[in-house]
User: Fold these one by one.
Assistant:
Number 1:
Amino acid sequence: MSYLAVPVLNAVSPLLALPAITASFGSTAWAAIAVGQSLGATAGVIVELGWGLSGSQRVARMSERNRARAFGVSLVAKAVVGVPVIGSAVVLSALLAPTGYRAVTVGVAAAAAIAMFSGGWVFIGILRPRLFLYTEVLPRAMLVTTSAVTIHLGGALWTYPGALLLAAVSAPVTGALVLRVRFQDLLSLGPRRLARVIGFQRAALTSSVLSSVYISLGTTIATLGSVNATLLFASVDRLQRMLQQVMRSQNYFFKGWVGREVDVGIRIRRAVRASIVCAGIGLGFGLVFALAAPAVADVVFSRTVQVPPLAAAIAGLSVAVICTTMSTGAVLLVTLGRVAAVATSAAVGAVVGLPAIFFGAMLFGGTGALGGQLLAEGSVLIVQVVAARRRLRQLRESGRRPVGGRTDPNAPADAKASAPGAVPGRATDPV
């Protein structure tokens, strides 16, 4: 339940205040908040530096002291990147904000980006989702709910971005206290090694950025292909994203379950098993989505959107594929030391998906756009599976595939960093 609560509350909590905001201040206020959220989330993808993809498995088998040190280093690395990136997002949000709502838009943008400093990726890696709940998710939900009540009772609109900012700043502070980060952990690396840390995260960051491109731009591309495709595609895509928050829960567990194993051979076998299990779960989710999407759309969108059976079936297949790639990428390829392959798969997804959605919408409307989305997700899965099979074959043919207690010479050095006092990954990872 803790693993499930994290993604669900993460998805729902920012929306708790919207009814009060629109009722008290109208649609222009909501537009100002939406602009800030979009710009802040985009900046946050860069600020996060891909730690959620590559970091969870690394910290899973670290000692408590090294874990705290790694989180401290991540905070400093994010700050170095975040100052110019968040500054740019703030300036741009001020320029694009509706008249009279500049401060609100800027506040929401800053909060969305600063939220990426949290320690959730560490708590997921060490199989402690409740710490994630207590340090970030629940406090934010409570603060946003308080702001919603305040606005409903006649309070200022600023209470909403103020609540988001307070939650965003308090999360890394609380996380650092829980993980027992020392002040010297924030100063443990000089400028040169800090630059190496940022460079070490380049593949994970590239994957996050490219994934966000074809995911976040899907509705825009579908609209460019055909305005008539927008309603169906955007509505079904929203339902898919809501379900993805639920599907993320088992992926959170598998990251820690696989990553905590020190023996490389067992860790790889666990990663393969996790991918197979997620593929089966994905088929179940996809089937349920295909059958339930038309009825759910009637409820969620007040019967303003009709989802044809073919569109529901295509979207269901996309759900199944997405659930599988959550594991083949973030678990299996990371375990095999092939984070760059995750970035490659995201690039292929963008190259295939954006034109496929455009021409699908142009030729077949919303259903065609959903077909283009399925092609994008399918291409991502193919690239990831091929990369994983190639790496496993290399290990097997070279005789270096780990068995039992033997260690893979090509494994990241942090596999040996579980002993108290060990420095994680000194050979390859500057952290």
Note: Residues 202-408 form one domain.
Number 2:
Amino acid sequence: MIARVHLIYYFTVSVIIFLLSDALSVLFPTFLEFKISYFLKGSVFFFYLVLAIKILSIKNLFLASFFVIIFATSQSYLFYVDKINFIGLIDNLRFFIWYFFGVILIFLFNKNDLDSIALNLLEKLNKVALLIITIVCISVLIGFIFNLEVLESYDGSRWGYKGILSKSITTSYFFIISLNYLYYDAVILKKKNFFFTLVLLCSLLTGTKSIYLFLLLLLFFDIISQKRYKLKSFWFVFITIVFLMVVFREKILKMTDFVTGLFYRLYQEKGLMYSLTSYRSEMLIDGINYYRSQWNWVNYLIGGRLIEIRYFEMSFFDLFYFFGSIGFLLFLYILIKHLIIPFFKKTAISGLFIICSVLLVAFFSGQFFNNSTVIILFFYFLLLIRLNLTYYEQDKHPKHLHS
């Protein structure tokens, strides 16, 4: 019972460890030689594995273990037909660990006794979350102000800053998830919080299209859900912005060339989808053709990632090619039944938007289900949202407060 009550604290400590690991790998690259990141994150994974064995039901453990069976079978088959070597097996094992980590977290997500968290402790947890967001934002701002190469999102011509996070895609998901958390706190729970605007502005400095896609989704959701279209002020602002964009379109294009220039050139060369997906449409086609030439019907059932293609950089395609149709459908079943539906029941349409907005971005981007930092951040902020909602409802209905 203790483990269930304090699971949110485990998530908090885990997030701090994972972000520390990322920061060390960015600021002190020599740490990679000593595998410090592997040790820190591996220790967290082992802890959650033991925790899952102790508190999950037999049914949940069986469903989780099914992924072990699928992975072991697919890798054995690839090795048998000489499609992979020992080094490839080790590489795939690393991918599997973080996929399996995500499955465990999905099952653990509903093992929290949320009502037993004291209000003063929840306030401390929210302060820790804000501190984490602040540190990442400051690192992005430092990279932007001082033009530090070590904090840049990309190598080469693309512009943007990822801060202390290890990858640009990690930074994208971090801001998407944290902005969802801050938006829910400020708009849905009606708390006065100007921090959301500051983080939003900072997120634009990452230079990733995932952020811009999410912000468009959030803007559209906010206008519809909050019925801002009924306000005269909304239409005044909307018409003013459109007018200014038309009048000053040339200056705006010049000012935003660091973001749009590269993608416009890609659009001219290879078309809209190639530009919008940052090469992923071509990578996807090449990858599908390669797997079609290497796979047979067994692989389509149980998967089998080939190391010649590292990622598809589209999370759901990566998931399918790793676990095959059986594992892919089982993963979606677990995700929907044990995460999306329970979260939706607690948080209504706003909670559904949070999850769906992240998953939609993941569909067009890679490394969601198998990025350890991203997946722990995702569940950490979802738990905080649920906790904040619990106390918000108790404030509205004091008779439900615990003594």
Note: Confidence is low (pLDDT under 50) at residues 1-5, 272-276, 398-403.
Number 3:
Amino acid sequence: MKILPFLIIVLTSLNSFGQIPEFDSNVNESVEDQSYLFKKFYPEYEFILGYTQKSFWFKRQEYSVLTFNGTDWELKKWSYELKEEKPKKSKMKSRILVKEKVINLLNYFESKGFYSLNQDLLNWSKKDLGNGTMLHQSIMDGVFETFEFISSSGHRIYSAHEPVQKQEFVYIEQREIFLDCLDKFLDLIDETK
């Protein structure tokens, strides 16, 4: 009868694995060691999807984080102040999400090819004028829209600096996918308020 608990654990693990997208890493160990999201949530959760806006002007860093613990999907609102390269005055609020809504979002990301975007193209800001010259757009300061995905299969970070303005300047298909998926993610987050 000792086989039954083992079988339940294996089946639960296989079921949860089927819900989690697989992707390759686009970060190295050095970047991973600097990830506050990675340090805070991994390996406690099987899957972590974090979104934040980063700017020189923000005193507090605020994340919306989808986590999966093998059973439940949760939305965590996590914020902190960075002092001496360490998160301080950390605050966290959590809420269980409807599994189907999260799975629909992740399936949408997969259908768009989101897990294999090219980081460099997200920040492309050169336009060919057709006469042998390139026009380069430069935005000082601004906001970086940043996604971070962490699971046992990999760790990916996408960071797009002022993607809406850059997309208006020069259309890039990869950036369009990023913005579309960002809208879908924000819709899910807004639904849970």
Note: The radius of gyration is 19 Å.
Number 4:
Amino acid sequence: MAFLVALAVFVAAILVGVVLFVTGHVVLGLCALLASLPFALASWVKWADRGI
């Protein structure tokens, strides 16, 4: 379950980054793209600690 949550967060962060990048917010888009992996790892650890 934790892997699926991390995957969903990763995909969502990439989509947000791409949307921001395409709409002209280049710096914010790159920041969101670069932060997608740490967000996914943090959500994986958080959900794994819950034991669900």
Note: Residues 2-50 form one domain.
